[in-house]
Amino acid sequence: MTALLAEKTAVVTGAASGIGRQIAHTFASHGADVVVADIQEEPREGGTPTHELIREDTATQAEATFVECDVTSRDDVDTAVAAATEFGGLDIMVNNAGIVGPTAPIQDIDPDEYDRLLEINLDGTYTCCQAAVEAMLKRGEGGSIVNMSSVAGIAGYANLTPYSMAKGGIRMLTYSLAAEVGQHGIRVNAIHPGVIETEMTTSDFPIVGTDEEAATLETIPLGRFGKPEDVANVTTFLASDLSSYVTAESIVVDGGAFRSA
Ligand SMILES: NC(=O)c1ccc[n+]([C@@H]2O[C@H](COP(=O)([O-])OP(=O)(O)OC[C@H]3O[C@@H](n4cnc5c(N)ncnc54)[C@H](O)[C@@H]3O)[C@@H](O)[C@H]2O)c1
Description:
It contains 8 helices and 7 strands, in the order βαβαβαβαβαβαααβ.
């Protein structure tokens, strides 16, 4: 059986840690060469850097490299895309980099923190989409762009207003861009994770392992928090030709919480 992502090249932003790290590793296990684009090489949760993990994994034949990339810098993003060109050309762009803070009532939010949140989560995703589309159009072989939103991009959550605004913006960026570039064979989709066990939910905006854990679990029909693998598998579907007639779509990966009363 041919690997799902054989002969494909992907850039995954925020791939040093958490969900992005798992996406990069899963892509490689399905045959894709991967550019790990992140502000830091070391995983936030500790362990071997993602590109080294992929290279050391004897079960994958894939290439992997790390590019220091802040998604708020178009120059950095261009460097990451150029690294994909060296692997053969950009087929898949996963815009996953993001932060959760500031998490506070609106009256307590510092304007600089607000600006930084929007700059990374929304403007950064836009910049990566722009660079990816330019590269894919130049190459003329289509492509798949996957944007990491959140359930907070479809529903309101107290003390997460700037985050929700950015993630909602990512959803509309996805729909609009899909309408624009579909004619060129470029698909654009979004994923909306619920609570996934990463540093974001254990440390930055703690839910996992807190007093709120049991109450939150009760709202999840599948009765558990998500693992990075749960998101990585859906991302692999959207990146691969299995989803060749899927664009302008947004998929919720949250164990059923969002659509359950
Ligand atoms: N964990 C969850 O429950 C959850 C839920 C919904 C959505 N998400 C989204 O999934 C994505 C990944 O989250 P995670 O939980 O893996 O978080 P994480 O903190 O574990 O990993 C985020 C990675 O992004 C990198 N990063 C931060 N700012 C960056 C920048 N400016 N440029 C490039 N890289 C940058 C970090 O260095 C880190 O490696 C984020 O967009 C997040 O909003 C996460």
